[in-house]
Write a structure and sequence with these properties.
Number of domains of chain A: 1
Low-confidence stretches of chain A: none
Number of strands of chain B: 6
CATH topology of chain A: Helix Hairpins
Helix content of chain B: 55-70%
CATH architecture of chain A: Orthogonal Bundle
Strand order of the largest sheet of chain B: 1-2
Structural class of chain A: mainly alpha
Radius of gyration of chain A: 18 Å
Shape of chain A: elongated
Low-confidence stretches of chain B: none
Number of strands of chain A: 0
CATH class of chain A: Mainly Alpha
Mean pLDDT of chain A: 93
Oligomer: heterodimer
Structural class of chain B: mainly alpha
Number of helices of chain B: 25
Order of helices and strands of chain A: HHH
Largest sheet of chain B: 2 strands, antiparallel
């Protein structure tokens, strides 16, 4: 609970973060920066859990605990994604998105 | 009286065709020749037996009865059905005798004539097919069965004319014959459909029934001033005119001489070309009574004009087979005009009897003329008159038999042609004076061109021959003897006792004054030919030059071929067909291709959906999710 700030303002912040993340996922040209955008999305959802927990259900802890799960999930997923990118690099010798467009019409 | 055994008369040649056709490589030529001759000999014997029994015992109360044996084949409705069967009546029995006789003689002759040829077995197979088809046509019980065999006969004729298939002229002639007759058969088919639609039957006994629909109710429906039945009969006659080489459709007959000579003797002189005459005779009650014989007048005039034009053209031709082809056309014109001027009752039906009589005698002497011409062509290796002369010293039998046939066709007394031609002239005299005068003139022309041929081949100056012309072997002389005998003896048959329009025999007497006129005209023709052609002189050339342009026109057969080619190539192909072809290529085909192009362009526009960019796929995913969320939210609010 932070005095003077209502839940709406923090929820707005997390949604802005979420959409910045999705925007980045759609438009970035480097695979690593796409990964970073995914992190932003996950981070925004984690903050969302914590905020709803402290403002609406102050006597419980589930929200905060779940955000730790999200951090673990993000780490695993990033490791997996990096592994894929490394294997992809061995074939196309680039981490640019435009070199991965071979499976098309 | 049971005549069901007559079904074997066509079946024997059919079996022969199948055997000789399927096993043609394995049967040696000598066997196929014997087999064909034996089979046709059996059919010949059966036909004579049938004729003997029918003409002696087939009468009931003085009227010849019709015997039919048929089974229903296709049923269109409960009244309209096509049968297959056998019809025995005076003209079909007569035609059986004619066809089997000539076919048998041609088989015997071909054994010697075609010896050494590669396709010997194939030839006999085709001859057997033709015999089967012709027998089937003659024995047909209804219009449709006759049409089926009509087409079969046309197909056999195609195969036989194009027998020497490596010669382009033979192939072209075969195509021409088939196309022209097929075009005429279009008229035949439309006529059949018209008549069967309005009268509800295909059967000859129903159509010819004096109490049936056709003869009593022909006036009920009319089209453009004539009854529909009359149109049907005229169209049926169009089919007959095509097959019998009557005037607008005659162009195939001279070219059909490209086939081997026995084929010309069998098909294009004695049997197939008379199919049109037989058709009109078969439907004679209908022709006679519908619209008071209007269709019959058409028949008469077409026949008369054809006989005149053909006789004029025959005067100028140099290829002996062409002369004989035009002669055939002219004599068939006689048969048609005899039918055309005939009425129905008793002695009024003289034309009908005369036409059938002339069919019989003509088959005999025309086949003999062709077989003789075949021997001559074989001896001098050329078809042209200019390469022949003085052959009477080398080929005495051919000479005498050819002379007998020529005398017969010219109407010299005591020969068969005299009797039959005279009956035709008597019938024409009694009913139509203009046709009578034209026919007498044609008789004179016939004698002239026939003896031009005779003197040109057997008298005159001898030409340089590659090797001395020799007479044919005995096996080929037997048919010549038999046909020569028939060319004299057939005239003494009292045809009016057997074949008449109303089936009751009557007695026909020779009209001595008309006979005298005809004989005189014939003898004048022979005399003129003797003067012009017996010894080499240039009287003929001077005479033809006096005619100038008319001679040129006649020599080119009045340019019928050129006119038809012009009409088909320039007008039909050039204007009508090319417009339709343009329409087909640029509008019909283009719309089909256009439909394909629409699909292709549409697909090339939406192929961007599979761009291979995962970010686009994610966009689509999220976009879909947003739309779904909006929908759910909207429903939740309401």
């Amino acid at each position: 609970m932070i005095e003077g700030i209502s839940i709406y303002e923090i929820l707005t912040l997390t949604s802005i973060l979420f959409f910045i993340g999705t925007y980045g996922f759609f438009t970035r040209e480097n695979l690593i920066t796409v990964l970073m955008s995914i992190e932003l999305i996950l981070n925004a959802s984690a903050v969302n859990f914590v905020v709803i927990n402290t403002y609406l259900y102050p006597d419980f802890l589930q929200g905060a605990i779940f955000s730790i799960f999200i951090i673990a999930l993000a780490a695993a997923e990033t490791a997996l994604a990096i592994a894929i990118i490394i294997n992809l690099y061995k074939i196309v010798y680039s981490v640019e998105v435009k070199d991965t467009e071979t499976m098309k019409y | 009286m049971d005549f069901s055994y007559t079904i074997f008369i066509p079946l024997i040649p059919l079996a022969l065709f199948l055997i000789l056709g399927i096993f043609s490589k394995k049967i040696p030529p000598s066997i196929s020749g014997w087999l064909g001759s034996l089979g046709l000999g059996t059919s010949f014997a059966l036909s004579l037996y049938t004729a003997y029994h029918y003409y002696l015992e087939g009468k009931l109360n003085g009227v010849y009865q019709t015997f039919t044996y048929k089974s229903t084949w296709l049923i269109f409705s409960d009244k309209l059905h096509i049968d297959m069967g056998v019809l025995i009546d005076p003209i079909s029995v007569m035609m059986l005798v004619v066809v089997s006789t000539i076919s048998f003689m041609v088989h015997l002759y071909s054994r010697g004539y075609m010896k050494g040829d590669d396709g010997y077995t194939r030839f006999f197979a085709y001859l057997a097919l033709f015999s089967f088809s012709m027998f089937g046509l003659v024995l047909a019980t209804n219009l449709f069965q006759m049409y089926i065999f009509w087409e079969l006969v046309g197909a056999s004729s195609f195969l036989l004319i194009g027998y020497y298939y490596t010669k382009p002229s033979a192939v072209a002639a075969a195509k021409k014959a088939f196309i022209v007759t097929r075009f005429a058969d279009l008229g035949f088919l439309i006529g059949i459909l018209l008549i069967s639609y309005y009268s509800g039957t295909f059967d000859f006994s129903e159509i010819n029934n004096p109490e049936g629909y056709v003869i009593t109710s022909w006036a009920s429906t009319s089209f453009m001033g004539l009854s529909v039945m009359t149109w049907g009969l005229i169209l049926i006659f169009m089919g007959g005119a095509g097959k019998s080489a009557m005037l607008p459709f005659h162009i195939w007959l001279p070219d059909a001489m490209e086939g081997p000579t026995p084929v010309s003797a069998l098909i294009h002189a004695a049997t197939m070309v008379v199919a049109g005459v037989y058709l009109v005779a078969r439907l004679f009650p209908a022709f006679s009574f519908v619209e008071n014989g209007f269709a019959l007048e058409v028949v008469a005039y077409v026949g008369a004009i054809s006989s005149l034009v053909a006789a004029i053209i025959a005067l100028t031709q140099n290829d002996i087979k062409r002369v004989l082809a035009f002669s055939t056309m002219s004599q068939i014109g006689y048969m048609m005009l005899a039918l055309g001027v005939s009425k129905y009752e008793g002695h009024e039906g003289l034309g009908y009897m005369a036409s059938m009589f002339h069919l019989f005698t003509h088959a005999m002497f025309k086949a003999l003329l062709f077989l003789g011409a075949g021997s001559v062509i074989h001896a001098v290796h050329s078809n042209y008159l200019k390469d022949m002369g003085g052959l009477r010293k080398y080929m005495p039998v051919t000479h005498i038999t050819f002379l007998i046939a020529a005398l017969s066709i010219s109407g010299v007394p005591f020969f068969a042609g005299f009797f039959s031609k005279d009956e035709i002239l008597a019938a024409a005299y009694e009913h139509n004076m203009l046709i009578y005068i034209s026919s007498v003139f044609v008789a004179g022309l016939t004698a002239f061109y026939m003896f031009r041929l005779y003197f040109g081949i057997f008298w005159g100056k001898e030409k340089q021959y590659e090797h001395t012309p020799h007479e044919s072997p005995m096996s080929m002389k037997i048919p010549l003897f038999f046909l020569a005998f028939m060319s004299i003896a057939a005239g003494y048959i009292h045809f009016s006792d057997y074949i008449t329009a109303d089936r009751k025999p009557f007695s026909a007497h020779l009209n001595y004054s008309l006979a005298a006129i005809a004989t005189t005209v014939g003898l004048i023709g022979i005399l003129l030919a003797y003067i012009f052609y017996k010894k080499e002189n240039n009287l003929a050339d001077k005479f033809s030059q006096a005619f100038g342009a008319f001679y040129k026109w006649t020599y080119h057969k009045f340019y019928f071929d050129e006119i038809y080619l012009f009409v088909t190539k320039k007008i039909i192909f050039g204007i009508v067909a090319s417009t339709v072809a343009w329409f087909d290529k640029y509008i019909v085909d283009a719309s089909m291709v256009g439909i394909g192009n629409v699909t292709v362009s549409f697909s090339s526009k939406i192929k961007g959906m599979q761009s291979g960019k995962f970010q686009d796929y994610a966009m689509a995913f999220v976009g879909g999710g947003v739309v779904l969320a909006m929908v759910v939210f909207y429903i939740w609010i309401n």
